[in-house]
Design goal:
Layout: E1 4-8, H1 11-21, E2 25-29, E3 35-36, E4 44-45, E5 51-52, E6 55-56, H2 61-73, E7 76-79, H3 85-98, H4 115-121, H5 130-157, H6 166-184, E8 189-199, E9 202-211, H7 222-231, E10 236-249, H8 257-268, H9 272-284, E11 286-287, E12 293-294, H10 309-322, H11 366-382, E13 387-398, E14 401-412, E15 442-454, H12 463-473, H13 481-490, E16 494-497, E17 500-503, H14 505-517, H15 524-538, H16 544-565, E18 574-579, E19 586-592, E20 595-600, E21 609-610, E22 614-619, E23 627-632, E24 638-642, E25 651-652, E26 655-660, E27 667-673, E28 676-681
Parallel strand pairs: 1-2, 1-7
Antiparallel strand pairs: 3-6, 4-5, 8-9, 8-15, 9-14, 10-13, 10-15, 11-12, 13-14, 16-17, 18-19, 19-20, 20-21, 22-23, 23-24, 24-25, 26-27, 27-28
Helix pairs in contact: 3-5, 5-15, 5-16, 6-13, 6-14, 8-11, 8-12, 9-11
């Protein structure tokens, strides 16, 4: 018989922890929640202080039976679920099922699965924190009241399989509102004038800046450009101003859940769901040969950028030994937290800085290693010195016309030696200094190039942008972002087009219904206030029943109106413009889980379906009879193939172009690079300059 029983959520975590605790401890996994609200009914008694009705989750009976047997044999039971609201609720449900007194020191929490952290946490067990449990209960009940009351209405009035939720409805609204902005956007013309200049043999670039005596001039038409060009006298410019400065740049703080999802999307092209799955694996433990199973990162659901003194000290030792003392932070600056951050535990960081990515290559999968490397580099950089940049700004004057040249170079790389934060707009920082220029110097214009531009509409949301926006607005919590993005796609409310969200017709219909009948549910400020209310419950400032009641009183009124006044919505099938090759009936466009497809209007008598193919205006280079069409693989990746498939088996991951190679007349394709596109030939070594 073991003296102590420890219950965690996952078998991977159980295996790691049991090895650290020794023979007196038996560690078992609950496989997540063991109790929840029933799926077949709302399970909330609104007439009795919103009392929840919990039942054992289907399929968890054998797990619970095994845990009860083990608990009876143990002297003491420790509940060691994750260190957040959800984990506290799991511990509470387990305590209820196993007859463990929640007021005893039965709860153990740790932020990382390492030997020292685990042993230390068992020295400080505590009672279950009912404020945390109540905050989780309140969220669960709120979501149940919304989902189980609105979803049946949508099934009845629109179609089966739909759902509505507090966070997902706001996310869909943000995507639709952005699409409306894009459609309403009116581009405005503007021009720039760029020039290449020579100082001796040194060449540099400068752009039109202003007219003497005026602020920076705006060029809104070609006429404005011509006026400027007519004022230039010859090709000689005089240097009238030289400004040299030293600029310091701070490292980004270590990762939170949100910033990890954003950066993994930018740098690794990972979806939020994939990022969290891999992070979970790294947190729970990886087999490292003789070292055994080791948790490689701290807990991955957090909105805090705080770092423990122990971790800071270890990072200092590593930086000193690998880079030298000049790369150390001069002072440990306290990171600024988000206004709505709970700061329950640390930032996401490696459990040991000395466990660098290279040392783990043989133990991690390719994607695990890439994510670990990102986390490790971001944390290490956050503990390093500022980067120092030398910047230079020079004004060149010809008559009353002023051009400005700017340049910069890294004087001291600091944290940039390890890591530089990505951006959604992929703006590269120049690292090119201007030649040695002084006031009064003469430089010569080599050539001038005016360019026409048009203002661009706001960009559609990528997963990274949407997560960032939800976080900034105070909508949802670290654990909700990935499932929310997954749900709105599975329901068919939005689709991804070139990695950017676009609303579907169904999404727009549901959004209009929600706006008309449940405006508060999709109101950004109202939803953010609800999140704040849940935070107050966690802090013990407000009873959870009060938060629920304040919401439900208004919601119930909207619900009654919707049940009486909501009209049935008929989603008409859009004609596809061609007939079914099997039965001759017209084909129509349908909306499926993965977007639109063509189906026979004679369904269910005829079940013929076809994918929608997009012609790109290129003759097939293989058979010269078919044309190249854009298709999607089973994993939704775009590829190009012959329209005569399967008679012709030509396929290409790169987009074929309608022009031939000027060198060998072979097929030209657009090859996607990390930053831009390059046109190249598939038959010879011909390549064109990459385009942004």
């Amino acid at each position: 018989m073991s003296d102590f029983l420890v219950i965690v959520e996952s078998p991977a975590k159980a295996k790691t922890i049991e090895r650290y605790l020794g023979s007196k401890y038996k560690v078992r996994a609950s496989m997540g929640h063991v109790r929840d609200l029933p799926r077949s009914q709302t399970g909330v008694d609104v007439e009795n202080n919103y009392e929840p009705k919990y039942i054992t989750i289907r399929g968890k009976g054998p797990v619970l039976k095994e845990l009860k047997t083990a608990a009876k044999k143990a002297k003491k039971v420790y509940l060691a679920a994750d260190p957040d609201r959800e984990g506290e609720a799991i511990a509470w449900h387990l305590a209820h099922s196993l007859d463990v007194d929640i007021n005893t020191d039965c709860r153990v929490v740790f932020n990382e699965i390492t030997k020292d952290a685990i042993k230390e946490s068992f020295k400080h067990p505590r009672p279950i924190n009912m404020d945390l449990v109540d905050a989780q209960q309140a969220r669960r009940i709120l979501d149940r009241l919304v989902g189980y009351n609105i979803s049946p209405l949508l099934w009845k009035k629109v179609k089966k399989g739909l759902s509505a939720g507090r966070v997902q409805s706001v996310a869909v609204r943000l995507i639709i509102d952005r699409e409306k902005e894009i459609q309403a956007f009116i581009p405005e013309e503007y021009w720039t004038i760029n020039g290449d200049f020579l100082k001796g043999k040194d060449q540099f670039s400068a752009s039109f800046h202003s007219i003497v005596g005026h602020d920076k001039a705006e060029l809104s038409s070609e006429q404005d450009v011509q006026k400027i060009l007519k004022q230039l006298k010859g090709n000689k410019f005089t240097v009238t101003s030289v400004a040299k400065k030293e600029r310091k740049r701070n490292p980004a703080p270590p990762f939170t859940t949100s910033s990890l999802q954003q950066e993994a999307a930018r740098k690794l092209n990972f979806r939020a769901k994939k990022t969290m799955m891999l992070a979970q694996q790294l947190y729970e433990g990886i087999e490292l040969g003789k070292e055994g199973t080791v948790g490689l990162i701290t807990y991955m659901r957090t909105d805090s950028t705080r770092v423990s003194e122990v971790a800071q000290s270890e990072a200092v030792d590593y930086i000193k030994s690998e880079f030298g003392e000049q790369f150390l932070k001069t002072e440990q600056k306290k990171e600024k937290q988000q206004a709505n951050a709970q700061d329950a535990h640390e930032a996401i960081r490696p459990t040991s800085t000395f466990r660098d990515p290279n040392s783990l290559k043989e133990h991690l999968s390719r994607d695990q290693l890439r994510l670990y490397k990102l986390i490790w580099e971001r944390f290490l950089a956050s503990q390093m010195a500022q980067a120092v940049m030398d910047t230079m700004s020079v004004d060149l004057q010809n008559g009353d016309i002023v051009f400005r040249a700017t340049g910069s170079k890294i004087k001291f790389p600091g944290f940039m030696k390890v890591y530089v934060e990505g951006t959604d707009d992929q703006v590269e920082e120049s690292n090119k200094m201007l030649p040695d220029l002084n006031e009064g110097d003469e430089v010569f214009q080599k050539d001038i190039e005016p360019k026409q531009h048009f203002t661009q509409p706001p960009p559609r949301y990528t997963e990274a942008r949407l997560v960032k926006t939800l976080e900034e607005l105070g909508i949802g919590r670290p654990s909700t972002y990935a499932p929310t993005l997954d749900t709105i796609q599975k329901r068919g409310y939005v689709a991804l087009d070139n990695k950017r969200f676009v609303p579907t017709e169904l999404g727009e219909i549901i959004n209009e219904i929600m706006l008309e009948f449940f405006p508060e549910i999709i109101d950004v400020e109202f939803t953010a206030r609800m999140e704040k209310g849940l935070d107050y419950v966690e802090e013990g400032k407000v009873p959870w029943v009060k938060v629920i009641d304040e919401f439900y009183q208004g919601f119930e009124k909207h619900l009654k109106v919707a049940e009486q006044e909501m009209e049935k919505v008929e989603i008409k099938d859009e004609p596809a413009g061609e007939d079914c090759e099997i039965c001759g009936h017209p084909m129509v466009f349908k909306m499926g889980r993965y977007g639109k497809f063509m189906a026979c209007s004679n369904f269910p008598d005829c079940r013929n379906t076809k994918p929608i193919v997009k012609e790109i205006g290129v003759e097939c280079p293989n058979c010269h009879e078919g044309t190249i069409v854009e298709r999607k693989s089973k994993k939704r990746r775009i590829f190009y193939g012959c329209s005569r498939f399967p008679e012709c088996d030509f396929i290409s991951w790169d987009k074929p172009l309608p022009r031939s190679c000027p060198k060998c007349e072979g097929l030209l394709v657009e090859k996607k690079l990390k930053k831009g596109i390059q046109v190249q030939c598939v038959s010879c070594d011909y390549k064109e300059e990459p385009q942004a």
